[in-house]
Amino acid sequence: MMSAESLDTQTVATDLALASGTMSRLLGQAAGQGRSVTAWRVLSSLERLGAQRVGDLAVEQRVAQPTMTGLIIRLENDQLVQRQSDPNDGRASLVSLTENGLQEIRGYRSRAINVLLSGIGDFSQEEQLALARVVPLLQHINEQIAAGLDG
Asked: What is the pLDDT of residues 113-138, one digit of tens each?
Protein backbone atom coordinates (compact mmCIF):
# COMPACT_ATOMS: atom_id res chain seq x y z
CA MET A 1 0.00 0.00 0.00
CA MET A 2 1.31 3.42 -0.94
CA SER A 3 1.68 6.07 1.75
CA ALA A 4 0.96 9.76 1.18
CA GLU A 5 4.69 10.51 1.51
CA SER A 6 5.63 8.07 -1.24
CA LEU A 7 2.85 9.09 -3.64
CA ASP A 8 4.28 9.66 -7.11
CA THR A 9 1.54 11.14 -9.29
CA GLN A 10 3.58 10.51 -12.46
CA THR A 11 3.64 6.78 -11.64
CA VAL A 12 -0.06 6.79 -10.70
CA ALA A 13 -0.97 8.51 -13.99
CA THR A 14 1.21 6.12 -16.00
CA ASP A 15 -0.16 3.03 -14.27
CA LEU A 16 -3.73 4.26 -14.64
CA ALA A 17 -3.30 4.99 -18.36
CA LEU A 18 -1.76 1.57 -18.98
CA ALA A 19 -4.33 -0.31 -16.89
CA SER A 20 -7.34 1.48 -18.38
CA GLY A 21 -6.02 1.06 -21.92
CA THR A 22 -5.42 -2.64 -21.35
CA MET A 23 -8.89 -3.08 -19.83
CA SER A 24 -10.52 -1.27 -22.75
CA ARG A 25 -8.65 -3.44 -25.28
CA LEU A 26 -9.41 -6.70 -23.43
CA LEU A 27 -13.09 -5.87 -22.98
CA GLY A 28 -13.27 -4.99 -26.67
CA GLN A 29 -11.77 -8.35 -27.58
CA ALA A 30 -13.97 -10.28 -25.17
CA ALA A 31 -17.23 -8.53 -26.03
CA GLY A 32 -16.65 -7.33 -29.59
CA GLN A 33 -17.61 -10.43 -31.54
CA GLY A 34 -15.13 -9.67 -34.31
CA ARG A 35 -15.99 -6.00 -34.79
CA SER A 36 -13.26 -3.40 -34.40
CA VAL A 37 -13.05 -1.23 -31.32
CA THR A 38 -13.60 1.76 -33.63
CA ALA A 39 -16.87 0.26 -34.89
CA TRP A 40 -18.12 -0.15 -31.31
CA ARG A 41 -17.02 3.40 -30.43
CA VAL A 42 -18.91 4.76 -33.46
CA LEU A 43 -22.07 2.85 -32.52
CA SER A 44 -21.74 4.06 -28.93
CA SER A 45 -21.24 7.65 -30.05
CA LEU A 46 -24.31 7.49 -32.28
CA GLU A 47 -26.34 6.16 -29.37
CA ARG A 48 -25.06 8.84 -27.01
CA LEU A 49 -25.06 11.87 -29.33
CA GLY A 50 -27.58 10.98 -32.02
CA ALA A 51 -27.13 11.31 -35.78
CA GLN A 52 -23.77 12.64 -36.94
CA ARG A 53 -21.98 13.46 -40.17
CA VAL A 54 -19.34 11.01 -41.42
CA GLY A 55 -16.69 13.73 -41.23
CA ASP A 56 -17.53 14.48 -37.61
CA LEU A 57 -17.33 10.79 -36.74
CA ALA A 58 -13.94 10.59 -38.45
CA VAL A 59 -12.63 13.53 -36.41
CA GLU A 60 -14.04 12.11 -33.18
CA GLN A 61 -12.47 8.70 -33.79
CA ARG A 62 -9.24 10.17 -35.17
CA VAL A 63 -9.36 8.35 -38.49
CA ALA A 64 -9.28 9.60 -42.07
CA GLN A 65 -12.66 10.37 -43.64
CA PRO A 66 -12.27 7.61 -46.30
CA THR A 67 -11.59 5.11 -43.48
CA MET A 68 -14.74 6.22 -41.65
CA THR A 69 -16.75 6.10 -44.88
CA GLY A 70 -15.67 2.48 -45.36
CA LEU A 71 -16.62 1.61 -41.78
CA ILE A 72 -20.02 3.29 -42.16
CA ILE A 73 -20.65 1.33 -45.38
CA ARG A 74 -19.87 -1.94 -43.54
CA LEU A 75 -22.10 -0.98 -40.60
CA GLU A 76 -24.83 0.04 -43.04
CA ASN A 77 -24.53 -3.30 -44.88
CA ASP A 78 -24.92 -5.03 -41.49
CA GLN A 79 -28.04 -2.89 -40.92
CA LEU A 80 -26.58 -1.29 -37.78
CA VAL A 81 -26.65 2.28 -39.11
CA GLN A 82 -28.53 4.20 -41.75
CA ARG A 83 -27.70 7.33 -43.69
CA GLN A 84 -30.05 10.12 -44.68
CA SER A 85 -29.55 13.56 -46.18
CA ASP A 86 -28.40 16.28 -43.82
CA PRO A 87 -31.24 18.84 -43.80
CA ASN A 88 -28.66 21.61 -43.22
CA ASP A 89 -26.35 20.56 -46.08
CA GLY A 90 -27.66 18.61 -49.06
CA ARG A 91 -24.12 17.50 -49.97
CA ALA A 92 -23.67 15.66 -46.67
CA SER A 93 -25.43 12.79 -44.99
CA LEU A 94 -26.22 12.04 -41.38
CA VAL A 95 -25.52 8.62 -39.93
CA SER A 96 -27.81 7.26 -37.24
CA LEU A 97 -28.31 3.99 -35.40
CA THR A 98 -30.93 1.56 -36.55
CA GLU A 99 -32.95 -0.41 -34.01
CA ASN A 100 -30.66 -3.35 -34.78
CA GLY A 101 -27.63 -1.14 -34.10
CA LEU A 102 -29.10 -0.04 -30.79
CA GLN A 103 -29.63 -3.68 -29.78
CA GLU A 104 -26.06 -4.53 -30.85
CA ILE A 105 -24.46 -1.77 -28.75
CA ARG A 106 -26.56 -2.79 -25.76
CA GLY A 107 -25.48 -6.40 -26.25
CA TYR A 108 -21.83 -5.33 -26.48
CA ARG A 109 -22.11 -3.46 -23.18
CA SER A 110 -23.87 -6.38 -21.53
CA ARG A 111 -21.13 -8.79 -22.64
CA ALA A 112 -18.42 -6.39 -21.38
CA ILE A 113 -20.17 -6.03 -18.02
CA ASN A 114 -20.43 -9.82 -17.71
CA VAL A 115 -16.70 -10.15 -18.37
CA LEU A 116 -16.01 -7.63 -15.60
CA LEU A 117 -18.47 -9.37 -13.28
CA SER A 118 -16.65 -12.67 -13.74
CA GLY A 119 -13.39 -11.05 -12.61
CA ILE A 120 -14.81 -8.91 -9.82
CA GLY A 121 -16.81 -11.83 -8.45
CA ASP A 122 -13.59 -13.40 -7.17
CA PHE A 123 -12.62 -10.25 -5.25
CA SER A 124 -13.15 -9.91 -1.53
CA GLN A 125 -15.83 -7.54 -0.31
CA GLU A 126 -13.09 -5.11 0.72
CA GLU A 127 -11.59 -5.19 -2.78
CA GLN A 128 -15.03 -4.68 -4.34
CA LEU A 129 -15.65 -1.69 -2.06
CA ALA A 130 -12.27 -0.23 -3.06
CA LEU A 131 -13.27 -0.50 -6.72
CA ALA A 132 -16.63 1.10 -5.99
CA ARG A 133 -14.88 4.06 -4.36
CA VAL A 134 -12.63 4.54 -7.39
CA VAL A 135 -15.42 4.70 -10.00
CA PRO A 136 -16.50 8.31 -9.22
CA LEU A 137 -12.85 9.38 -9.41
CA LEU A 138 -12.47 7.75 -12.83
CA GLN A 139 -15.66 9.45 -14.01
CA HIS A 140 -14.32 12.79 -12.79
CA ILE A 141 -11.02 12.28 -14.63
CA ASN A 142 -12.97 11.41 -17.80
CA GLU A 143 -15.01 14.62 -17.46
CA GLN A 144 -11.84 16.70 -16.99
CA ILE A 145 -10.17 15.14 -20.03
CA ALA A 146 -13.32 15.61 -22.14
CA ALA A 147 -13.62 19.26 -21.07
CA GLY A 148 -9.98 19.81 -22.07
CA LEU A 149 -10.61 18.29 -25.48
CA ASP A 150 -13.72 20.42 -26.02
CA GLY A 151 -11.97 23.61 -25.00
From this structure: 999 999 999 999 999 999 999 999 99
Q: What DSSP letter does each residue of 54-67 carry, written as one string?
A: HHHHHHHHT--HHH
Range of the domain at 141: 123-151
Same domain membership, residue 111 and residue 86: yes
State pLDDT tens for residues 31-88. Answer: 988 899 899 999 999 999 999 999 999 999 999 999 999 999 999 999 999 999 888 8
**Per-residue confidence (pLDDT) for residue 90, from 0 to 100:** 80
Are 68 and 142 found together in one domain? no
CATH number for the domain that contains residue 116: 1.10.10.10
Closest by CA to 70, choosing from 105, 36, 24, is 36
pTM: 0.80
| Measured distance CA(95)–CA(50) in Å, rounded | 9
Same domain, 103 and 136: no
Q: What are phi and psi of 19, to 5 degrees?
A: -65, -40
